[in-house]
Amino acid sequence: MTIHSQALAYLIWRHAEPRAWDCTVSEIAEAIGSHPIAVGRVCGAKGWSNRLRTSEMDRFAHLCHVRWAA
Asked: Strand, helix or coil at 3?
C-alpha cells in the first residue's frame, strides 16, 4: 500500500471502529471527504469489506469499477 492509501486506511478505521463498522463505504467516504471507490479499494486491500454494511450505491460503484477495470 502507498503512503496515501495507508493514511486513508487510518481515516477509515478512525471513522468506522467507534461505530463497530456499522456504516457503508459511501457513509465513510462522505465523513472523511474521500471518494467511495478509493474507500472501497482500501477496505478491500485491508480485508475490511466484510465488516461494512452494503448499500445499493456501493454495489453500483463496485460494478462500475469492475466494468471499467476490465
From this structure: helix
| Cβ atoms of 66 and 37 closer than 8 Å | no
pTM of the model: 0.77
DSSP letters along 5-69, please?
HHHHHHHHHHHHGGGTT-S-HHHHHHHHT--HHHHHHHHHHHT-GGGS---HHHHHHHHHHHHHH
- Asked if 42 and 9 touch (Cβ cutoff 8 Å), the reply is yes
The type of residue at 21 is W
d(CA 30, CA 14): 14
pLDDT digits (tens, 9 = 90+) for 8-26: 999 999 999 999 999 999 9
